[in-house]
Amino acid sequence: MISKKSPQADLNNKSSFYFAVGLFLVLFISWRAIEHKNWDDDGYGYIALDVENDDDEEIPITEQLKTPPPPPPPPAPEIIEIVEDEEEIEETIIESTETDQEEIVEEVEVVEEDLDLDVPFAIIEDVPLFPGCERVPKSQRRDCFQEKIQQHIVRNFRYPEIAQEMGIQGRVFVQFTIGKDGSISGIRTRGPDKNLEKEADRIISKLPRMTPGKQRGRPVRVPFSVPITFKLQ
Length: 233
Fold this sequence. Notes:
Blueprint lengths: L14 H21 L105 H16 L4 H6 L3 E9 L5 E7 L3 H12 L8 E2 L2 E2 L2 E9 L3
Antiparallel strand pairs: 1-2, 1-5, 3-4
């Protein structure tokens, strides 16, 4: 069967052309819409102010002048009153202190006071002299005294029998005084047992008379202390 339709009336022949034209128009309108700008006046105006910088202006410094106070008024002159000298001045007569050859000068006797002091053995000027230390030099007499005391204790030492049986031992501290006449007095003992204290007292009481210690050349009392050890063998 033969088609009777005219080839010029067929729309499919130009469909691609119409499609391209339509696409171009759409793109052109879209581009113009994007490029279009609407500048609206918001009604506000801007005024630029030119403000000068006035910070560099120098302000003069004013200084308050201090006025000095007025000088004080001059003092009033003193009134000098003249008084007549009517009083009589007695003259003092200075007598001569020189004595005539005929006058007898009375001698004044100076009595030296006796030193009633206890001077410790460690600081006394002249230590007491134990018999046998008289010829020892003064600088060695202190050591000589202590050595003689120890020899006397060893020579007269006896251990109490009661203390030995009871097993009592220890150290007894003895203190005594060498008087102004060199005698021994004021014996005091302190130890762990009365029997040991009694023996220590007996040993010290047998000390010989000594030459007394001196302070400033005068005899004084000299306290002295010594330990005595009681030890069982």
